[in-house]
Amino acid sequence: MMDATDRPHPPGSEPGLERLASDIVTCRRCPRLVEWREQVAREKRRAYDDEEYWGRPVPGFGDPQAALLIVGLAPGAHGANRTGRMFTGDRSGEVLYASLHRCGLADRPTSTARDDGLTLRGAWITNAVRCAPPANRPTTAERDACAPYLTRELSLLPWRAVLALGAFGWDAVVRHVGVDGPRPRFGHGASATLADGRPLIGSYHVSQQNTFTGRLTPDMFDEVVRAAMTAAGLSAGLTRGRPDDADPVTR
């Protein structure tokens, strides 16, 4: 259910998205996740010992007029939990943003810090769970506690299609939006029609486990990103009919 504070804001409204981001960043609903994300931020990884970790829930990032919504699982312990921006500062992000740049959705191929100036156009990136979980495995209770944030995000963005990274993101979108008929099965390149008529596209997650083993190659991922762009009505990273004076978000 959408939070009452967001009702006055139409899809694509930055005030609604900013309020949502503020609510996400201050969330402490899940004791296990709070303890883990803060422990990681204190102990750090040796390579980042001189950095101050974000150590909080991570809000979505991108263009508030996004036609394409990209949904993953959760922040990486030493990636987004360190930098404070989705898929930023780890190997998964390297794969994701390089592809978005090749496909015209990002203005640069790398994402190193939340203040590096990276801009997305036509796309918004989020996760089903906003805190880094131990072993990258949130519990069902943690997933459900985080669910209202995705519900609000879906209501505040003018998305036309979803690209789900992995089965967890796929299932989250199906739960939130629903489907008519049998529950669709996730797979790389799988597609389904959500209950509201908008398309859902699946991709293997851009995790190291998939990219290092060759289960997901750059060409494979580019192909599914372009399919999702087509489903969203995007061409060369620009939304058809998008106002010329609407600025993308560079959080």
Characterise this structure.
This protein is an alpha/beta fold. 35% of the residues lie in helices and 12% in strands. The protein has helices spanning 14-25, 31-43, 80-83, 91-102, 140-156, 166-177, 208-211, 218-232; strands at residues 61-62, 68-72, 123-127, 161-165, 191-193, 199-203, 234-235, 238-239. Strands 1-3-2-4-6-5 form a 6-stranded mixed sheet. Strands 7-8 form a two-stranded antiparallel sheet. α1 runs antiparallel to α5 and α4 packs across α8 (218-232). The longest helix is centred in the middle third of the chain and has 17 residues, at 140-156.
| Helix content, binned percent | 25-40%
Annotation, overall tally of beta strands: 8
At the third CATH level, what is the topology name? Uracil-DNA Glycosylase, subunit E
Which whole number gives the mean pLDDT? 90
By CATH reckoning, the class would read Alpha Beta
Helix count? 8
Top keywords for this entry?
single chain, 251 residues, alpha/beta, Uracil-DNA Glycosylase, subunit E, six-stranded mixed sheet, two-stranded antiparallel sheet, 8 helices, 8 strands, 35% helix, disordered N terminus
Quickly describe the structure.
45% of the residues are buried.
Furnish the topology, listing elements before pairings:
Layout: H1 14-25, H2 31-43, E1 61-62, E2 68-72, H3 80-83, H4 91-102, E3 123-127, H5 140-156, E4 161-165, H6 166-177, E5 191-193, E6 199-203, H7 208-211, H8 218-232, E7 234-235, E8 238-239
Parallel strand pairs: 2-3, 2-4, 4-6
Antiparallel strand pairs: 1-3, 5-6, 7-8
